[in-house]
């Protein structure tokens, strides 16, 4: 049980009603709510002084706050959180709101980006807030891939798909990678990329790594047995091959040739490990997000709220999300069902076109 739900359960009926009415009054008007306002239509006959004392208790609990010298109160962020989680009465979706969102689905277009753009615009119009649509990641075969270094800890994977779709994904590259190593990785991948999705590319690299691993084991077995070389590397650490003595003192030419071959295979294995890391990071990286009617900086404002709901594809897998960003005094009871319905609508549109 969360701290807020514990406080809510311990509150008596009067405290709970005062708290609910203050929050609802604030959400409706944006103004502080005073004790006299509450006294007029309170469910029981109580004095303004009694309500003032109750409001002071709620302020002590961190649920209400006095924005200035007036006697009115507004909910704190903690109070809003508790109200939304425990007291919010979510209404049914209004028929007019439903009709406006349904109108976005009235298209035979298979252009998912266009559909999401229309959904975002409609959601923004219906709610009078900024809408956010997190697009699903594309799974078509890739025609070309590039890794672009943006900073020492950030890079961009540019994916050009066979159907012409282009997607940018931000990721954090492994430590020590350079722009030239990223170019080499991209060149290698573009040579084998034909007709493969990102996940199929990963499988191809993993198979090649397993093949190199097997070749190294076979070649090194006799050298290890003879004591010429030893393995070093703990669990979870990459293996290292340690040559005992100086390699130019090896008398057996076949051993020297095998050692050179192992070194070459090791270099290849390490390069493919780096490429495998790039692919994994690119697949998990942030896909292109569509923000309509707002800028990213809105998320850093303490006075803003985000109501968001995930949507699923035909396999019941979460592939994206839709949401509304606005001031903390959103009409949550109306916004929540709109966002939930929009998420279901987008999920159906995506499933129908997949």
Automatic annotation (TrEMBL):
Superkingdom in the source lineage: Bacteria
Pfam families found in the cross-reference section: HrcA
Keyword Repressor recorded: yes
An annotated Gene Ontology molecular function: DNA binding
Ranges for domain Heat-inducible transcription repressor HrcA C-terminal: 115-336
Function recorded in the entry: Negative regulator of class I heat shock genes (grpE-dnaK-dnaJ and groELS operons). Prevents heat-shock induction of these operons.
NCBIfam families linked to this entry: hrcA
Protein name listed in UniProt: Heat-inducible transcription repressor HrcA
Species per Swiss-Prot/TrEMBL record: Sulfitobacter albidus
């Amino acid at each position: 049980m969360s701290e807020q739900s514990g406080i809510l359960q311990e509150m008596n009926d009067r405290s709970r009603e005062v708290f609910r009415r203050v929050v609802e009054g604030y959400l409706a008007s944006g103004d502080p709510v005073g004790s006299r306002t509450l006294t007029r239509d309170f469910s029981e006959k109580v004095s303004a002084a009694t309500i003032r004392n109750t409001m002071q208790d709620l302020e002590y609990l961190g649920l209400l706050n006095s924005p200035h010298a007036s006697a009115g109160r507004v909910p704190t962020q903690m109070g809003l959180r508790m109200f939304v989680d425990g007291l919010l009465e979510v209404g049914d979706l209004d028929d007019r709101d439903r009709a406006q969102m349904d109108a976005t689905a009235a298209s035979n277009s298979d252009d998912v980006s266009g559909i999401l753009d229309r959904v975002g615009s409609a959601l923004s119009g219906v709610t009078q807030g900024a809408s956010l649509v997190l697009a699903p990641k594309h799974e078509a075969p890739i025609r070309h891939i590039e890794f672009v270094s943006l900073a020492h800890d950030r890079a961009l994977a540019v994916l050009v798909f066979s159907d012409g779709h282009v997607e940018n994904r931000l990721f954090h590259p492994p430590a020590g990678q350079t722009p030239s190593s990223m170019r080499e990785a991209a060149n290698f991948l573009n040579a084998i990329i034909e007709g493969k999705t990102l996940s199929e590319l990963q499988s191809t690299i993993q198979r090649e790594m397993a093949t190199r691993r097997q070749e190294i084991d076979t070649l090194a077995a006799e050298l290890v047995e003879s004591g010429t070389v030893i393995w070093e590397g703990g669990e979870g650490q990459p293996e290292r091959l340690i040559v005992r003595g100086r390699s130019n003192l090896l008398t057996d030419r076949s051993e020297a040739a095998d050692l050179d071959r192992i070194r070459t295979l090791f270099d290849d294995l390490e390069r493919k490990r780096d490429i495998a890391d790039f692919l994994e990071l690119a697949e998990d990286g942030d896909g292109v997000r569509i923000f309509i009617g707002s800028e990213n900086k809105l998320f850093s404002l303490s006075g803003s709220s985000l109501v968001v709901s995930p949507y699923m594809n035909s396999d019941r897998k979460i592939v994206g999300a839709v949401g509304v960003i606005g001031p903390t005094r959103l009409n949550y009871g109306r916004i929540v069902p709109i966002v939930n319905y929009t998420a279901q609508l987008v999920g159906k549109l995506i499933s129908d076109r997949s």
